[in-house]
């Protein structure tokens, strides 16, 4: 058996099949394998028909024998146990220097653990985010690899050949960092995707319920928005969804049940933000908005008894649509600022050396959040590699200054009309909190000290000195220890 395969791919579902075809289009010989082995021949006789440089393997042993050394094996299987199971199955057939790549949506702590485990056995490991869905996998995904640094030169050429390219022709794939960094950045990407989608849905809801616009009118609004600062894949598909009618001429979007699904990456992002103490409020609201949407029966029951305001929109509809656009844009800036704050803290915690401009570039094309906006983020990090927060950058500061009055008006009117806009609202609250020199946490610290002797620092004393007040005259002088629970 001649070892002619450049790489093997395990997992012949939608992502795996399309990645194989993409690699093969770029001149690589790919060995294909799947747990349910019959799917190998189905693939060879269907999507891969006529391609003699896609080779089917019917066992792991055969697959490994077909590979050039050092071997590169990519898993595109369901995240979780299937990845660990495949790693264990592969191990007896591999030797030092071989590389296993996990391209699924694995949780980053698993990738940290697997990288250590396999490096301990002399193997190399990459956990990589692959974004762009079916079409991306086939014609150019955004790829976010992390893991063993020595593995990057082994896959750089393949990954940068098959990935999406920016409008300037740069590859939307670069080395992200050690162990779980690639999957962390992919997780954050997905969290930001949740946020972007929720913001668009809120704009839709305010236009639909608040202004009474038809789908056709909203189609035109999104088409217009897609020509400017909001130019992005998600605005583009929203336009197309609003314009889509079925064979009976009916609008499909109106027939879809309003309960959102989720697969966990938004939740992981929110949990990580809580673990790291970073207020990634917009993604959190986006996750909770999906949870609330899923409580359909309760909402239907509540809608019959809980009353809201009767306020109707009065005023200039066209001007208000522009207010909504600006609210969306300003909220989106806050969401990305929060996402980059999170990655910065994660890099500190897990000792990753992340390149934030590089991450914006990797997301610029191929992935679900691809947009012109990410080009602006890249420029911001080019201006200042150490930029502490996107909100501080002069371009984004300027956009917020320009959008702010509209943003506040859109939120205020939505609230008066009783249309829920949790992501718009939390973004604005974050912005106002972030720019506040003084927050009411002085009172909060007093409350903590009052009931639990938790102590406080004073504005007239150096940081790090803690004080306790006997607020009631009944407590003693013993203070609680300083630690974070
Ligand atoms: P799926 O997530 O549906 O996974 C299907 C593959 O996993 C099949 O090869 C299946 O083998 C294998 N598999 C399963 Br299911 N359980 C297994 C087990 N216990 N042991 C071994 N293999 C098992 O496919 P996908 O949608 O192509 O996604 C692949 C990965 O890429 C996932 O991690 C996904 O989260 C990620 N991803 C998906 C998308 C997307 O748009 N779909 C985008 C980006 C990333 P079988 O044929 O024998 O059942």
What would the principal axes of the Cα set say about the shape? globular
- What is the first-to-last residue Cα distance? 59 Å
Integer average pLDDT? 97
- Ranges where pLDDT stays below 50 over 5 or more residues in a row are none
Number of helices: 19
Strand content: 5-15%
Ligands: nicotinamide 8-bromo-adenine dinucleotide phosphate
Q: Which bin fits the share of residues in helices?
A: 40-55%
Structural class by SSE content: alpha/beta
The main sheet comes to:
8 strands, mixed
Task: Describe how the helices and strands are arranged.
Elements: E1 7-10, H1 14-25, E2 30-33, H2 38-45, E3 54-56, H3 60-65, E4 72-75, H4 81-90, E5 99-102, H5 108-119, E6 124-131, H6 133-139, E7 142-147, H7 152-162, E8 177-178, H8 181-210, H9 215-225, H10 233-242, H11 265-276, H12 281-294, H13 296-303, H14 317-350, H15 356-362, H16 372-383, H17 394-417, H18 422-434, H19 441-452
Parallel strand pairs: 1-2, 1-4, 2-3, 4-5, 5-6, 7-8
Antiparallel strand pairs: 6-7
Helix pairs in contact: 1-6, 8-11, 8-12, 8-14, 9-10, 11-12, 12-18, 14-17, 14-18, 15-16
The protein binds nicotinamide 8-bromo-adenine dinucleotide phosphate.
Nicotinamide 8-bromo-adenine dinucleotide phosphate binds at residues 11-16, 34-36, 39, 76-79, 82, 85, 104-105, 130-131, 133.
